[in-house]
Design a protein that fits this description.
By secondary structure, this protein is α+β, with helices and mostly antiparallel strands. The protein has one domain. The protein has four helices and eight strands, in the order αααββββββββα. The protein has helices spanning about 5-10, 15-40, 45-50, 160-175, and strands at about 65-70, 80-85, 90-95, 100-110, 115-120, 125-140, 145-150, 155. Strands 7-6-5-4-3-2-1-8 form an eight-stranded antiparallel β-sheet, with helices on both faces. A hairpin with a 6-residue loop joins β5 (about 115-120) and β6. The longest helix is centred in the first third of the chain and has 25 residues, at about 15-40. The relative contact order is 0.17.
């Protein structure tokens, strides 16, 4: 007497399509999270720059609106962008990729990093995160040349698009100063 056919008869049948559809959303969220994490981590010599104590030249970000990208060019597919507003040391903004969803964040700007809480746009789960600020070169000011601070691994972009402004406005509505 054998029970093998009976066991096979009641075994659940899962196809790869069903399994893929079940796991697609968590896999996309994992890939986006890993991409944001990998791109925000400082590499090489930036680690020493980001971890050294701030100098008079490395001041925190001034009040204003900022746009940064993995590419110095706006609106490149597959590149991550960070748009944010800074007011009195507080930051509100979003990480996004072109033609994709965005995740808002809120937090505090310090002399060498941005401490933030990223809120997942799908389930509203909040995750603590930190982005190192690195110097990107000298900019002019009334008191002389100062180093511009940018998130490590990102380039400063001068002009916000209407999409950047809309994303930022959405996040500022959710997390007002």
């Amino acid at each position: 007497m054998t029970f093998a056919p009976l066991a096979q008869e009641f075994a659940p049948q899962l196809s790869w399509t069903v399994l893929f559809n079940f796991m697609k959303r968590p896999l996309v969220l994992l890939a986006l999270s890993l991409g944001l994490l990998a791109n925000a981590l400082p590499m090489g010599t930036e680690i020493a720059t980001a971890s050294t104590p701030p100098t008079a030249e490395a001041a925190p970000l001034a009040d204003g609106v900022y746009l940064y990208g993995e590419s110095p060019q706006p609106d490149e597919r597959g590149k991550t962008y960070l748009v944010m507003a800074v007011q009195a040391g507080q930051a509100v903004g979003a990480f996004y990729q072109l033609d994709s969803s965005f995740d808002c964040f809120h937090g505090q700007v310090t002399a060498n990093r941005i401490d933030m809480t990223i809120v997942n746009s799908y389930d509203q789960a909040a995750y603590p995160y930190e982005v190192a600020l690195a110097t990107s070169g000298a900019i002019a000011s009334a008191s002389g040349a100062v180093s511009a601070m940018v998130p490590a691994g990102f380039y400063a972009i001068d002009t916000l698009s209407p999409t950047d402004q809309q994303i930022l406005a959405t996040c500022q509505t959710s997390f007002p100063f």
